[in-house]
Design a protein that fits this description.
two-stranded antiparallel sheet; flat; single chain; 6 helices; mainly alpha; 206 residues
Length: 206
């Protein structure tokens, strides 16, 4: 059986192997899960909130950023991604660079788990869905990850500030050395003076 990228209107999409069929399965899983949740809400007599307040939007937005990055890039959570990705190198702040491996569903899951941008809709859906059922508990969990994200940015700001101060100090030291060299050229040391009879001392040329 031909892969989806080799049939019909999908043929010629790309010369490289992209598991379009597995991508479609992931899209179907996402859509089916959301529709299933909405159906369960209606059947149970629960009602969705009219809208999310800006405080919840901000909280869940920051928490989604933190969880997406934690799952997709963190060194410790690589045990979750290892069956679907291959380690490439270490990055900064305890993160790693990885690449999806395998074919079909394995590769598609690897590309999903390795991409914080791709993963964020799934995480956001989880937070919003959970908040409609257990809002208090969901806010509690989201607050933990939001605080983690705030701490991450503070660590980054501290590093950037330290690097900026180090560069400034190095530039000042370089400028001081350059000024000292220029002063030595403009005002060389005077040599011994030559004294002629009946005249004032005349400095000898340097």
């Amino acid at each position: 059986m031909k892969a989806l990228q080799e049939t019909g209107p999908f043929a010629g999409y790309d010369s490289e192997h992209h598991p379009l069929g597995s991508y479609a399965a992931l899209i179907g899983t996402f859509g089916t899960s959301m529709l299933g949740f909405l159906g369960w809400m209606g059947a149970s007599g629960r009602r969705l909130p009219e809208r999310l307040g800006w405080k919840d939007l901000a909280l869940f937005g920051i928490a989604t950023h933190a969880v997406s990055r934690l799952v997709s890039l963190d060194k410790v959570t690589s045990t979750l991604r290892a069956p679907f990705v291959r380690y490439e190198s270490d990055s900064t702040a305890g993160e790693v660079v990885e690449k999806a491996r395998g074919e079909g569903p394995r590769r598609a899951l690897g590309e999903l788990l390795d991409c914080p941008f791709c993963l964020s809709p799934w995480v956001a859906t989880g937070f919003v869905a959970a908040s409609t059922v257990r809002p208090r508990e969901t806010r509690f969990v989201a607050s933990i990850f939001a605080l983690s994200a705030a701490s991450f940015f503070l660590h980054r700001a501290y590093e950037w500030l330290g690097e900026g101060l180090h560069r400034t100090r190095a530039q000042v030291q370089l400028l001081e050395k350059q000024q000292e060299r220029e002063a030595a050229v403009q005002f060389p040391d005077r040599g011994p003076q030559v004294v002629e009879s009946g005249r004032a001392p005349i400095p000898s040329p340097s």
